[in-house]
Amino acid sequence: MPIQQHTLKIRPDHLSRQAVIYVRQSTLLQVRENIGSTTRQYDLVKRAHELGWEQAGIEVIDQDQGQSGSSTIGRDGFQLLVAEVGLGHVGAVLSLEVSRLARSCSDWYRLLEICALTDTLVIDEEGVYDPGLYNDRLLLGFKGTMSEAELHWLHQRLQGGKLTKAEQGKLRFRLPSGLIYDPVGHVVLDPDEAVQGAIRLVFTLFEQHQSALAVVSYFAKHQLRFPTRHWGGVRSGELEWVPLCHGRVLDVLHSPLYAGAYVYGRTHTRRHALPGEEPRIKGRTRRVKQEEWPIVLLDRHPGYITWDQFRCNQQQLADNQNTTAAAHRGAVRDGPSLLQGIVLCGSCGRRMSVRYQREGSVLIYECSQAHTQLAVKVCQTMRGDRIDQVVGKALLEAMEPAQLEVALSALAHLEGRAKQLDQQAKRQIERAQYDADLARRRYHAVDPENRLVARSLERDWNEKLVEVDRLEREYQTQPVPDALRLSAEQREQIRALAQDLPTLWGAPTTTNAQRKQLVRWLIKDVTLAKRGDLVVIDIRWQTEARTSLSIPRLKKSWELRQTRPEVIASIQKWAPTYSDASMASLLNEAGYSAGGGGMFTAKKVQSLRYDYQIEAGCPQGPAACPTGQRGDGRYSARTAATLLHVNISTIAKWCETGRLEYVQTAPHGPRWITLTPERIAELRKPTQQHWKPRQTGKPQQNVVE
């Protein structure tokens, strides 16, 4: 379209304001290589001058070079442009094409809305547009939509080509330590034997200990290093030995590349906006579940383990998670609990936790998940030491047929691990010696007159020699692994000891973690349930076979102090005719003990009668016996005096002189007299004496009726 037609929309009001030229390239590579596009965008200054703007009224915004137009985040130039347009300082916005301004419809339409409000023109190579006019705005909107769609189509084509290449196993990506690309582009094992030995040692230790943290502890204890190769930069491909950390072990165990598999789509990145004064977009990467991996090609290259071993490692890592889910058992720990992580509640089915009391001397299995999550009562709690003993005994009985095979395989495994450790230490010394020789050759190759370089190379050579000396001294001073110094006689002793597996199981050299690991190899889970006075132990073996055992349930403290039912029944039987003291003697003779322990006494029997509301036929005090005669036939002193026609003092005198037989539970307490009909007839007086009141002035007389 000729410039004369463009100028019909350009009014003096537009020319009185600035003409802003927006320059942008999407990547720094385009800025460096696509010079022609950048030149064309800067040439828009001439275009603005031809349309009527003075040179002083033309401004170029090029701060967004190397920034993508898919978002306004990080595009300071575009944000400045929008601000100037909103303030009414801009008469026209010039861009080579719409895609230079924005490749997002939301950003593009927002700019058009502001341009329409402030009467700002939009100019590209094809024409001049007034966003205030519907037809121009419709055309600009269509261009913005096509610009965004173009970016989407470009992304789809790139992703499609990337996916097609990945389906063929030809898409290259960063390889972990221990794997490299050969000159042809195939994945092969690292030719460095020290690197291979370190990778294999990680898998061997994890297979033995079933814990990533145990692998880290082993490397730290033996001062072993782990290899890593730099990716990109000036040190690309350079090998470096660093201390092994927990995250690196997890990366090794989670990588299917070590199993010889080519996998694409293990991670997924999702963008999200971070709030703040300067909001920005950040990608959050998460792992994709193994069953959701889009491309998995097995046996594509050499590996350190098999695919089945890789899957077993993933299952073990999932079990090691310390969660309350029933599917996760947690890692094996050093506590005394034999069934840690594999105990299920027989009431609700949840996984039971382990709790220790009295500084670890008392083991408790407790189902407290419902209490923690729902604030309800604890499902069940029980002592764990006796349960561990029963399960351990069942485990040893199940292993009796294979004791010898277990011993031989354990001994072979121990020897293999010791040799592997020794070889790894030798490889480290060999690597350090190679570095020292390389430093020596560099030092001898330099011009001796060039002291600046020679001193630096000499210092590097000395450092390498010190490292070699340190490794050699550590290798000579470290203790030789037990498996490497066992004699033939000692090996036979180990085989003989394996025949007595219970002794080996309880040996001080066998750790709690080793016992737990052996339990997990054979037992899948153990379900505990209370059934009356019994604790039912249901063992589910790895073969899905089940063994049901039971032990007496430990009584609570108040139950241990509770009086036995047969004691209460005896007291109810004897109470009408026996005193508390007599019943205490009878109970002691029968072999019963009081609830809190010890012998029965009259006071304890009396307390039981009060607690169980048992009436005493032979009370201690006369007031408790209105008839004056107890259930055992004994009479109170007053009743005896009435029967014998004497006064109470006479009864007391006869008791003291032994004329009457009586019982007295406490000193100066009431007496209960034993009187038979014959004894009553013998001691009864013929008449009863009455004492009359003393009369004034007359001597008192004893009247006998």
From TrEMBL:
<dbReference type="InterPro" id="IPR006119">
    <property type="entry name" value="Resolv_N"/>
</dbReference>
<feature type="domain" description="Resolvase/invertase-type recombinase catalytic">
    <location>
        <begin position="18"/>
        <end position="169"/>
    </location>
</feature>
<dbReference type="GO" id="GO:0003677">
    <property type="term" value="F:DNA binding"/>
</dbReference>
<dbReference type="InterPro" id="IPR050639">
    <property type="entry name" value="SSR_resolvase"/>
</dbReference>
<dbReference type="InterPro" id="IPR011109">
    <property type="entry name" value="DNA_bind_recombinase_dom"/>
</dbReference>
<feature type="domain" description="Recombinase">
    <location>
        <begin position="176"/>
        <end position="324"/>
    </location>
</feature>
<feature type="coiled-coil region">
    <location>
        <begin position="404"/>
        <end position="474"/>
    </location>
</feature>
<dbReference type="InterPro" id="IPR025827">
    <property type="entry name" value="Zn_ribbon_recom_dom"/>
</dbReference>
<keyword id="KW-0175">Coiled coil</keyword>
<dbReference type="Pfam" id="PF07508">
    <property type="entry name" value="Recombinase"/>
</dbReference>
<dbReference type="GO" id="GO:0000150">
    <property type="term" value="F:DNA strand exchange activity"/>
</dbReference>
<dbReference type="Pfam" id="PF00239">
    <property type="entry name" value="Resolvase"/>
</dbReference>
<feature type="region of interest" description="Disordered">
    <location>
        <begin position="685"/>
        <end position="705"/>
    </location>
</feature>
<dbReference type="Pfam" id="PF13408">
    <property type="entry name" value="Zn_ribbon_recom"/>
</dbReference>
<dbReference type="InterPro" id="IPR036162">
    <property type="entry name" value="Resolvase-like_N_sf"/>
</dbReference>
<protein>
    <recommendedName>
        <fullName>Recombinase family protein</fullName>
    </recommendedName>
</protein>
<dbReference type="InterPro" id="IPR038109">
    <property type="entry name" value="DNA_bind_recomb_sf"/>
</dbReference>
